[in-house]
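Take the subject:
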Amino acid sequence: MLDRELLDIIGRGHPDRTFTTMGAGLSHRVSPLKLDEIQIALNAKDSETIDSIARLVANFYIKSGRQHPSFWRWLMGERGISYFWITESGRAYLQAAQIPATSSDKIQTSGCASPEDLEKVKNFLQRLGYKITTHGVAVASMRLASGYSHCETASHLAVLTLARDAREAGDHAVKLMALIPPASAMLELLSEFKSANLIRKEIFQNHGQAILSISIPNENQLDFIHQILSSSSDSRNRVANSYSE
C-alpha cells in the first residue's frame, strides 16, 4: 500500500519543475521530486520511504537522477541532489489499478500472467511478424503484471526484436534495408490496434517513433539502436525471432 501511495505522489510530480530525460532513445519531459519532498508528502518513516523507493526502482516503476553541484560547492561539502520521476511502466501500473478489467484485451491487473494471457500476447506478436522466445515469455509476464495490455506487451517485444535485428545487421546496407518492409507493416498494424483501443495513444506514439528511428537509415541509426537496447533490462536476451528465420 505504501509503494502505491508513493508511486502516486511521484507520478503527480512537482508543479513547477521539469527536466528532459532520455529513455529508450527518446526524450521525455518529467516533473521530478526530491527525496525530502517525497518524504514530506508521504509522511512516513525515512526507512520506510527508502525501502519503498528501492522496490519501485527495482520494478522499473520509477527512475532517479542526480544533479551534481558545481566544483566550488562540492569543495564546500555539497554532494548533489537526487531526483525521482515515474516511468511509463509505473504510470501504466497506476492506470491499471484504476481501470476495471471489463475486457480480455484491456489492462491486466493480475500480478501473475496466466497461460491464456501469454497466449494472447503470442497471437498479437505473431501478427506483428515474430515468435516469442523463453526470455520473451518472462518479459511478457512482467509487462502484463506492470499494467501493459496483451497488445502493448506484444508491441514492446516487437520493438526490442526489431532493434536487435538491426544491431546484428551492423553496417550491412542490404540487411538494414530488408528491415524496412516489416517495420512498415508493424506500424500499419499498430495503427489499427490503436484505433481498436488495444494500445494506448502514448505507447503507440513511443513505439511508432522507435520503429521509425530503428528502421530508417540515417547517421544516428546505430546510436539509437544501441540506446534502446542498453536502456531496457528486457533486452538482455532475445525476446522474439522473426517468422522468416
Remarks:
- Residues 99-111 have pLDDT under 50 and may be disordered.
